[in-house]
Design a protein that fits this description.
163 residues, six-stranded mixed β-sheet, 8 strands, elongated, binds zinc ion
Length: 163
């Protein structure tokens, strides 16, 4: 299913703003029910700003015990698209403030909301996926050990607790 908003539609809307409610499954994102987003898409002249909130329940696998668990995804989105090509030196994505990038539309007259949400969800996945405080795998690995790549080998083997 496509979720495309045209630049013309935004420009011709009241206050040059389109309110877009997204509720759909996203290919490559394993979720319980749809991913929901309430987005405000506003023309700032040369730029289009997409902001709002994204929610969903994801099925993730625990890094410690490898069991599947449900993860409540809930984050805010604030993306700026440039209608026309930015100066070459800036490249495809330009960071305008911490965590906020301008994405070049390369002259495209539409914004692909589906693709934007897919990329945003992937970026907002937790670095460490842990099923919960009662995780069985949590007994033998501490937080800092997890971030040590040399400890990666222990993630996949069972260690018996000492008596
Ligand atoms: Zn676990």
């Amino acid at each position: 299913m496509s979720h495309i908003v045209s630049i013309d539609e935004i420009e011709n809307s009241e206050e040059k703003t389109v309110y877009y409610d997204f509720e759909d499954n996203i290919d490559g994102v394993d979720s319980v029910g749809p991913i929901c987003a309430e987005l405000t898409i506003k023309s700032l002249g040369e730029f289009i700003e997409v902001s709002g909130n994204v929610k969903g329940i994801l099925k993730l696998n625990c890094d410690l015990c490898l069991k599947e668990f449900e993860y409540n995804l809930n984050f805010d989105i604030d993306e700026v698209f440039a209608k026309h090509a930015l100066l070459e030196e800036y490249g495809q994505e330009t960071e305008i403030k911490e965590g906020q990038f301008i994405t070049d539309l390369n002259g495209s007259d539409t914004i692909d909301i589906y693709d934007l949400l897919y990329q945003s969800v992937i970026l907002n996945l937790p670095n460490k996926k842990v099923c919960g405080i009662n995780c069985n795998g949590d007994n033998f690995l501490k937080e800092e050990e997890l971030s040590d790549p040399r400890m990666d080998v222990f993630k996949n083997i069972q260690i018996q607790p000492k008596d």
